[in-house]
Amino acid sequence: MSCHNPTARRGELSLAAFEIARADEHAEVAEKMIRKLRAGMMPPPGARPPDPAAVAAIVEALESRIDRAASARPNPGSRPFQR
Hints:
Elements: H1 27-38, H2 52-72
């Protein structure tokens, strides 16, 4: 990780301690990663891209982990007002 490490912190993000198995603990970061990987924004232009199957596997692992956690602990939000 030459971009998202504790020293470089590109995008104000370090993924050094990020674990896919615990992605639900950092769901906002995982969602950002999913969006950027799906859009082909990561890795950035000029960097050697990983195998598309590897990217798909990472996205699937992230999505399934945060989806399982969300279904186990649903949070519908709050009702802002009463009619």
